Amino acid sequence: MQWARALAVEQGFVEGPHVHGHGVWGLTEKGRTSAESLRDSGMVLDSDGVGQPLTGTSPEDDARRRQRQAEIGDKGERFVVNHERERLHRAGRADLAERVDHVSLRVVDAGYDVVSYDEAGVQVFFSIEATQYRVTRHEVAPDG
User: Which end of the chain, N or C, is less packed with Cβ atoms under 10 Å?
Assistant: First the structure.
């Protein structure tokens, strides 16, 4: 993200926190004009800065999409909880399997979703991102 911000500053689309303070970046007149032009052409910028067509999503459709995403996320978290419990049982650590905690059921802003343990009893924290799309081995990697 830093390189994109640097490019936007270099091209005169945004001005940095030295102008606005507190880490807030603002659009310059050139940036506002470009954003309005993009919007007027029926496009918006996605999170990667690529122009995408406006979809005209209704509030009802958006609510259904968010509900579906929440369901997929819940399934992903339950999968990890079950996997960790089974793994610890297979390792002969039923005591730790019982302590695997699905934290996000109680706290949504903990910074992680599940707490498990390695075979030595050291806590392992999982932040889970689930999707309905096929995942390749290149998209799954250990943290750190």
Answer: C
Q: What is the pLDDT of residues 41-91, one digit of tens each?
A: 766 665 555 666 667 778 888 888 889 888 998 999 999 999 999 999 999
- Predicted structure pTM score: 0.56
| Residues in Cβ contact with 39 at an 8 Å cutoff, skipping those fewer than 6 apart | 54
In whole angstroms, give the CA distance from residue 78 to residue 91. 20
Q: Is 53 helix (H, G, I), strand (E, B) or coil?
A: strand
Rounded to whole angstroms, how far apart are CA atoms 112 and 101? 11
For residue 105, CA distances in Å to 38, 50, 64, 70, 110 come to 40, 35, 21, 12, 11
